[in-house]
Structures are given as structure tokens and as C-alpha cells.
Design a protein that fits this description.
Layout: H1 3-23, H2 27-39, H3 41-62, H4 69-90, H5 95-117, H6 125-141, H7 146-155, H8 161-184, H9 190-213, H10 219-241
Helix pairs in contact: 1-2, 1-9, 2-3, 2-10, 3-8, 3-9, 4-6, 4-8, 5-7, 5-10, 6-7, 7-8
Length: 245
């Protein structure tokens, strides 16, 4: 990779961090559109798993008093083993297979957000266990699974800072399992660590800019723009993986 490639990653990581800070998700959905052409599809999910640790730690520190710990442990009981399975399966994919998986997931996760949003306040604790397993499996294999977790927490009745805080606590522990699995299966070489740490560090100032923008940008307009971008990017990745583009 050239200096220009690294500069592009830094700029895009800051932008994706701003988007994620405004909508509560987005970094894992947008960064693959930039990373796949530069590092290859199979390296994307492990890189983003490491980078996400930065974001989740900062949110845990900032919102620690709002963490709903009973729900954290309830979700993690089923999410952690599912995450290991999903992460281990991902390391077996080749480049085209990873591109197809990531592209398909990006496209499907957009309507999934709207579907899960309709369940707000209607999900039972037992259903939450099943949803936690789905989140873990998807999170281990594809980027952008934060949509599922945030929507699930909303469906359980959490609001405002409690959603951000509880999401960060769950995602942090899940992220550690993902990183350990990728590392043990050879999915995180030194070059991937370099890119991951760069993305994580670049995303820190983006979070503060997002806080400033939240009062000046319509969330509905922003989400529609991001959804269109994600679907377009996911379609490109899918077609590339199939060899049609």
C-alpha cells in the first residue's frame, strides 16, 4: 500500500466515524467499500474488529453509568459462542467468497434495520436470546452487524444513552472474541494490525465532530443517504465476488 492509500483510509475512517456517531452505527457498513479494493475482502472483517475496540472503549468510558449490565450478560451468553463460530467460518473464505458474503450482508442489513425497528418494545427476553445468537453469528462473519444489536436493544425497551452504552459493552467483549479467533486462525497478520490501528485512531476525532453535527443534521436524511450508499457499495462487492464486474 502507498502513502496515498493510507491517507485515503484515514480520511474515510474519520468520515465513517462521524456517520457512526450520528446514527449509532455505520463504520462497519461504510469502511468495507474503501478497504476491499485496498486490502482484499478477506482482510476487512478482522481489520474492522480491531478498529472497533477504540470506539467501544471510548463509549464505555463516556456512558459507563448508563450500561444495563443484566442485558449485557444475557446477550453475551449466547452471542459469544455464536461469534466464535461465525469468525472461524469467515477465516475459511477466499477472496471472492468473502466479497460475496460482505456484499450480500451489506445489502440485507439495510432492510433488516427497518424490520427490527418495527419490533421496538415488543421483543421478549426469550426472543432476545435468539436475537443475541443471530447477532453473534453475523458479527463474527460480516461487518455492520451493529444494526442488529442496536435494533435489538431498542426492541427490549432501552432508550437514549442506555442503548449506546449497552451496545458498546456488548460489542467490546464480542470484539475481543472475534480478534482472538481471527488471530488464532491466521486472519490478522502484521499488515492488517497496522491498518486496523490506523482506522481506530483516525476515528477518535470523528466521534467528537459527530457530537457537534448531531444538532445540525436531520437524522432521517442522513440515514437515507447512508442506506443508499451501503446498498450501492454492497452491490458492487457482490458483483465483483461473482466475477460479473
Amino acid at each position: 500500500m502507498s502513502f496515498g492509500d493510507y491517507a485515503l483510509i484515514v480520511v474515510c475512517a474519520m468520515g465513517a466515524s462521524v456517520v457512526g456517531g450520528i446514527a449509532g452505527y455505520g463504520t462497519g457498513l461504510l469502511m468495507p467499500l474503501v478497504l476491499v479494493p485496498l486490502v482484499g475482502a478477506e482482510a476487512v472483517v478482522p481489520i474492522l474488529a480491531v478498529a472497533a475496540i477504540f470506539t467501544n472503549v471510548s463509549r464505555i468510558i463516556a456512558f459507563r453509568e448508563h450500561i444495563d449490565w443484566p442485558r449485557v450478560w444475557r446477550v453475551l451468553v449466547v452471542a459469544l459462542p455464536a461469534t466464535f463460530i461465525g469468525a472461524a467460518a469467515y477465516t475459511w473464505l477466499n477472496g471472492p467468497g468473502a466479497a460475496i458474503l460482505i456484499g450480500s450482508a451489506l445489502i440485507l442489513l439495510v432492510p433488516a434495520r427497518y424490520l427490527l425497528k418495527r419490533l421496538q418494545g415488543e421483543m421478549s427476553p426469550r426472543a432476545a436470546l435468539g436475537a443475541g445468537g443471530v447477532f453473534g453469528l453475523v458479527s463474527g462473519a460480516v461487518p455492520g452487524a451493529g444494526i442488529i444489536l442496536i435494533s435489538m436493544l431498542m426492541a427490549l425497551g432501552l432508550k437514549g444513552p442506555a442503548i449506546i452504552a449497552t451496545d458498546a459493552a456488548i460489542s467490546f467483549v464480542v470484539g475481543l472474541v472475534k480478534i482472538a479467533t481471527y488471530q488464532s486462525f491466521g486472519g490478522l497478520p502484521a499488515s492488517s494490525w497496522t491498518v486496523a490501528l490506523l482506522i481506530g485512531a483516525a476515528g477518535v476525532p470523528g466521534a467528537f465532530l459527530a457530537k457537534w453535527l448531531t444538532q445540525r443534521l436531520s437524522l432521517g436524511v442522513h440515514q437515507r443517504i447512508m442506506d443508499a450508499t451501503v446498498i450501492l457499495g454492497g452491490s458492487v462487492l457482490l458483483l465483483r465476488g461473482l466475477g460479473w464486474l
